[in-house]
Amino acid sequence: MKEESMATRRKVIQRMLEGAVFLGGGGLLWGNSIKTNSKSDYVLRPPGALKERSFLKACIKCGQCVEACPYDTLKLAQAGDGIANGTPYFEPRTIPCQLCPDMPCTAVCPSGALDLKNLSEEEKPADIMNSKMGLAVIHKESCLAYWGIRCEACYRACPLIGEAITLNYEINERTGKHAKLLPIVHSDVCTGCGVCEHACVVEKAAVFVLPLNKATGEVADHYIKSWDKSDEDRINENVKVADDDKDIESAIDYLNDDDLINE
Ligand code: SF4
Ligand code: SF4
Ligand code: SF4
Question: Which of 2, 82, 114, 156 could bridge across to 39 with cysteines, CB 3.0–4.6 Å?
Fold first, then answer.
């Protein structure tokens, strides 16, 4: 009888331990999943990649783009990287994209997940300089140039020097006799290659590339640049699509209403 109750007790303890291991494992998995979600939100894809959701559907994880990259920029995500397993990505602080003019990674992709069409503008031939892998963002508080120290490392390294990054001259108010040369990134030109991030001299890069959806804001459709004719055309088009029966003139009058603007 005593032996029987000992056996039962042992089983209960064993089950409790199994439960604890399961919960522990679950905790780890859950922790990994949180990490996975946050890291994959910031993943940078090769040139010509479709938008992330479509890219994930299209990519067959063959690794041909990774093999084609002569700079070892691209890696295939592995279990534990926090990025969809087997998909290509790059980390500019380690190895940036060198913007190969012949676009070997994009050209070799068999699935259309990387598409040369995404690198061509106005039906011209594809050009690597049209890449939009992300957008470089400057953290002014840790950028030496914004402190007033001469740096320019990112500016000098940028393959689109003077276009994607320019230097803005500003008087150093603190010393009163020196100038600050402040790097400014131009979002319409920046390719997201990350050469600037790689070149940044501070410990944790003060300029870094973020995916476009993380680096950019979005203006609602009802704001219009009244000085830009094409923007007025855009709102006219949107109003028409939204409700063909509505009076466009009155919609624009409403949006330009002084009382509304001053609210
Ligand atoms: S453009 Fe060149 S360096 Fe950049 S990812 Fe493609 S193959 Fe690699
Ligand atoms: S070549 Fe295309 S399909 Fe293959 S891993 Fe690269 S992106 Fe995915
Ligand atoms: S990511 Fe940096 S180096 Fe590359 S184009 Fe943009 S500003 Fe220049």
Answer: 82
Q: Whose CA is nearest to atom 6 of ligand 3?
A: 190
Q: Which ligand is nearest to the CA of 154?
A: 3
> Nearest 5°: CA angle at 93, between 106 and 49?
20
Give the CA distances from residue 198 to residues 129, 180, 203, 226, in Å, rounded to whole numbers and listed in that order.
18, 22, 11, 40
The predicted-structure confidence for 175-222, as pLDDT tens digits, reads as follows 777 889 999 999 999 999 999 999 999 999 999 999 999 999 988 888
For residue 105 and ligand 2, the question of a CB distance below 6 A is answered with: no
102, two tokens: 């012949």
- From residue 70, alpha-carbon distances to 96, 105, 175, 205, 206 in Å are 12, 9, 47, 24, 27
Q: Which residues of 238-261 are buried (b: 16+ CB within 10 A; e: fewer)?
A: ebeeeeeeeeeeebbeebeeeeee
Q: What is the pTM (predicted TM-score) of this model? A: 0.77
Structure token digits, residue 64:
């041909």
